[in-house]
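Below is how a single chain appears once it has passed through the pipeline. First comes the sequence as given, then the structure the pipeline wrote out for it. We keep one example in the README because the format questions we get most often are answered faster by looking than by reading.
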Amino acid sequence: MIADKVENTENKESVYSKLAKVALEECEERFRILMETIKEGVVIHDRFKIIETNPAFAELLGFKLADILGRDVLELIAPQSRDLIMDKLLGGDEGSYEVSVRRKDGTPVALEFCSRVIPRGDDRINLTLFRQSDNKIQAAPEHPAASDRLDPLFEYAPDAYYLADETGTFIDVNKAARELFGHKKEFIIGKSFLKLKILASDQIHKAARNLALNIFGKSTKSEEYIIQRRDGHRIPVAISTRPAKVNEKTLLFGIVRDITEKKKTEEALHRAVKEIESLVEERKSDGDETGQKSNKEAVKG
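Resulting structure:
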């Protein structure tokens, strides 16, 4: 009876071990399929050393897959973006940022990246996703003048352009701005963001601060806002401004970019990160279980 119980126990352990092995193989296969089919470039790295990547990342940079594995991920980043990458990776920042990456032929390419830390025992590894950036910002005219404000470059620019005086009152807007705000030009001119009730009340302070910087001759970096169109639809935008001299008078030149697609990209990146993170965790869990079962069988043997 005791011998039968021991034999049954050994059979069960053997079955569990086989099941764990099958589960691990299935997980590996799912992981491989995801890595090969996902559109984003995936880089899994340990202390910046690349331990796994996928064809999409290799294609983005013009490398063969084998040429990337084992390299320091910072080697592939343009010098001007390395400090940003290091800060975000070491700090565990999970936000999405745009960086410049160098292709194999040395040409730079703008990519959006987001990263997540995955615990591995007492240590950790990083899972980072890269995606082609859609951020193609057209340069604005350096010195717009009153006589050429309706120049086609201003009027038909893909981004929303506007000119305002030192009080923030609009004196000109282009076609893209009118479409973005959802108002006719006649309704916009002579009013400010505040009077148009385009910005939410909690964003007025930020807009006023940037207006003050412009008055003192300083440009402002691109900052995110939520604007409300005339139809009530809320749109995420990025607004940057700078002072411009027109007939000896200081005007404010602003660029408003609809970043709806950028936000969708960020959400897609985060979803992809979570999916891959889940599979990485599953691989680790199944691998640990297989190892434990094998050790038990080795001890019994």
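The chain has two domains: 17-133+262-300, 146-258.

See the next section for the split statistics.
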